[in-house]
Write a structure and sequence with these properties.
With 347 residues, this protein is of the alpha+beta class. The protein folds into 2 domains: 147 residues, no CATH class; 111 residues, Homeodomain-like (Arc Repressor Mutant, subunit A), CATH 1.10.10. The chain is 56% helix and 9% strand. The chain is built from 16 helices and 6 strands. It has a 4-stranded antiparallel beta sheet. Strand 3 and strand 4 form a beta hairpin. Helix 5 runs antiparallel to helix 6, helix 13 packs across helix 16 and helix 14 crosses helix 15. The radius of gyration is 20 Å and the shape is globular.
């Protein structure tokens, strides 16, 4: 089943594509997106077409950081009502909690999570559509937009402590620093921004409690119409708990303050169960790590909450009928073939 995002994710695409020596209409047509997609930001587009577009733009422009630079160039108003809800929250913590709670309105293929670890806070982004491969570009675009959003909320107070990527560097790290002002940490547990947790308490000068309640009511109505909200929340929690080997239904139920039996019944009403959601998250994360990072299979097994590398390898073979190493080699071969075909087409 196709997963969609608001077409506003492509705001300002034409101008940026032209600045990179591309013909925007041609690039949109290659992936089956309409030429006027930017003029209809509230329409829905398949998330996989966004990923394909960013991949093609990377190849045809020769700019490996196309998506990151594009995200940094975008205006945060692309979030629509969600951004105005955030701007009218009382403080940064409330604003970011609204973002995590309502992000599905903007994109059904990804989730945003806010975590506090002592004096540090991490705003992370994860693609939840298990059918999407080669999503490095989508992640980098999203974190570029995230930088702009945090800068808009905090102004001169915005001083990130770290930029985290689960994938490996595709160019020299100094080139990333030229775009975002900081050297990223690669092959990380998260895709996200780390910053001083004290910034969460910064009050927003733009806060309007009345307007905040009105917008919140509008978005809550959308939320109640979504049958996918509970499974999406469970998958967010699974991703949060996996690295600590705590991604079990008992831990999630305790976090949500419900009994495991009640949680099982609620998931059954949605046509799913905890084990299925856990497997989907692990499949998605495994494919992402194998394709876009350079971490070892043993490290991957640990990050995915497996007791051993062999347990992870057995599970992976059950999913895809090949070992993790063979899957990685096959994807690398496909990527090389695609890059070779693209270079031949442009010569």
């Amino acid at each position: 089943m196709a997963v969609f995002a608001r077409a506003s994710v492509l705001s300002d695409f034409s101008a940026f594509a032209i600045s990179q020596g591309l013909q925007p209409m041609e690039m949109l047509a290659k992936v089956g997106l309409p030429s006027d997609v930017e003029q209809h930001g509230d329409n829905l587009i398949p998330f996989r077409k966004l990923v394909a577009l960013l991949n093609n733009c990377d190849l045809h422009s020769g700019n490996r950081l196309f998506a990151l630079q594009y995200g940094v160039s975008q205006d945060v108003s692309l979030f629509g009502p969600l951004f105005y809800l955030m701007r009218n929250a009382k403080d940064v913590r409330t604003a970011l909690n609204e973002l995590t709670r309502q992000f599905y309105v903007h994109s059904g293929a990804a989730a945003v999570t806010l975590e506090e670890h002592g004096s540090h806070a991490i705003l992370s982004y994860a693609i939840t559509d298990t059918a999407v491969f080669g999503s490095r570009h989508a992640v980098e675009r999203a974190l570029g937009v995230g930088m702009q959003m945090l800068s808009t909320l905090l102004g001169s107070r915005w001083r990130p402590q770290a930029l985290l990527f689960q994938h490996a560097a595709v160019v020299e790290p100094r080139h990333y620093r030229q775009v975002v002002g900081i050297l990223p940490s690669f092959n990380s547990v998260y895709n996200g921004w780390m910053f001083d947790a004290a910034l969460l308490d910064v009050t927003l000068d733009t806060a309007d409690p009345v307007l905040h309640r009105l917008i919140q009511g509008h978005l809550d109505n959308l939320e109640h119409m979504s049958e996918q909200e509970l499974p999406r929340l469970i998958q967010q929690l699974i991703r949060r708990f996996l690295p600590d080997a705590r991604a079990n239904i008992e831990q999630v139920a305790e976090y949500m303050k419900v009994s495991t039996r009640k949680l099982q019944r609620q998931l059954a009403r949605e046509g799913t169960n905890f084990q299925k959601l856990l497997t989907e998250v692990r499949q998605n994360m495994a494919c992402y790590y194998l394709q876009d990072s350079t971490i070892s299979i043993a490290q991957m097994a640990d990050l995915l909450g497996y007791a051993s590398q062999s347990a992870f390898s057995r599970a992976f073979h059950e999913w895809y009928r090949q070992s993790p190493r063979d899957w990685r080699k096959a994807r690398e071969a496909i990527k090389r073939h695609s890059q070779h075909a693209s270079s031949r087409a442009t010569t």
